[in-house]
TrEMBL record:
It is a multi-pass membrane protein. Gene3D superfamilies: Tetratricopeptide repeat domain (1.25.40.10). It is found in: Membrane. The chain crosses the membrane at residues 17-40, 440-461, 467-487. The keyword Methyltransferase does not apply. This is Suppression of tumorigenicity 7 like. It holds the Pfam family ST7. The gene is LOC101064496. GO terms for cellular component: membrane. Belongs to the ST7 family. It comes from the Eukaryota. Keywords: Membrane, Transmembrane, Transmembrane helix.
Amino acid sequence: KNYTDSSVFLNTLTPKFYVALTGTSSLISGLILIFEWWYFRKYGTSFIEQVSVSHLRPLLGGVESSSATGLFTSINGETEPRPSVSECKVWRNPLNLFRGAEYNRYTWVTGKEPLTYYDMNLSAQDHQTFFTGDTPQLRPEDAVMQKAWRERNPQARIRAAYQALEMNQDCAAAYVLLAEEEATTITEAERLFRKALSIGKPLLRPTPSQQESGSEHLDINLLVYIKRRLAMCARKLGRVKEAVKMMRDLMKEFPLLGMLNIHENLLEALLELQAYADVQAVLAKYDDISLPKSATICYTSALLKARAVSDKFSPEAASRRGLSSAEMNAVEAIHRAVEFNPHVPKYLLEMKSLILPPEHILKRGDSEAVAYAFFHLQHWKRAEGALNLLHCTWEGTFRLIPYPLEKGHLFYPYPGCTETADRELLPSFHEVSVYPKKELPFFILFTAGLCSFTAMLAMLTHQFPELMGVFAKAFFSTLFAPLGFFADKMESFMPSSFWHQLTRI
């Protein structure tokens, strides 16, 4: 009887019903596909998968093993702690540009903002801590400058700097802000930094009151910052030898401030002078083979080794005779650099367009790659054949790294938090480079297939309604046939009184 009823119901359905059914299914699955794709592009994960893991798994009793959380297997097989998201530390870009003279000029020309609010907020925190920290006796002009660094509006920051100068004409921090943000040329910024330096030099001989208040330390920080920016001004204005001398003097005068990475400014200036022996001497001091400090260190080391062999390097000749020891050293240095930061080669080989570097970078991230390539691409181009050698060998690095990335080859595994941090640091118009490439989640592939299949059915049903109606009825009849057969068998085995009592219940 049940089978007969279902057959009668199917026979009453018209072709329009099947068109509406398949069309609605296609529309709904298409909307789900669009949302899933948008969510994956924005957050790097599937929404359905995330909801399933977060909400459905606990309800079904699934519990993740807590013993393995935050651990990975090292090369020697031992279990070591995996870097967490909080350990993806953001660093100040050693070669960051000037806002007024460089970043703002880009905005005037293109109408695009090269800096994100997150990046600028980090800079404001740096300036507050570095120049106007929490001293017991905060000077009035310092209180104004502390507020100035926090202002989001550039004009408000500039007005606050002038207000601080009205309180004290010798407020070096105010001149620093004006040099960074109001000066529209490097020459004007250099003039303001020199004014700030003339104010800051006497502060190297602090008074007893300054020592008691703690402002001596802050004034030294400010002085180091001013000297460094003056050296960068000299470099940008073409006085490279003067810039190198200022950087060397600064590193010698304040050797404990290595965390400022002034050596990276020095390396770039020495490469501009083509003083490769001096570059090698700096690398010998700062390059740690097992734990390099930055992409600048790794790729500069690779550049020097590539430069020694690249002018005569030929892929065809190397495949016939094999690599010489010098060529092997250069290739290994390139592989080491690429494993440390795999985003750099595409910028150096101009496979991806460059943007202005952010004020902060993430080690091993796309932001660091942008910052390195922006300043060092010219040095790779100057070394004949170096980019050709990089082009021929850089992709070989990925054959050496195990997959999936539970292990690194030379270094600890590539951290998984770089994409999120880079999206905060880099402007929205830049396509963030992601490594390793995320595979499309199952639900995106499933909804894409479902949408395509139902759309095809809707189109066929609309074009051939009678034929598709026959196929649909045959499909549903076949689908319900086992159920009808099972129901008939149950009726034959069970006494009629049992079914009567069951319906009464």
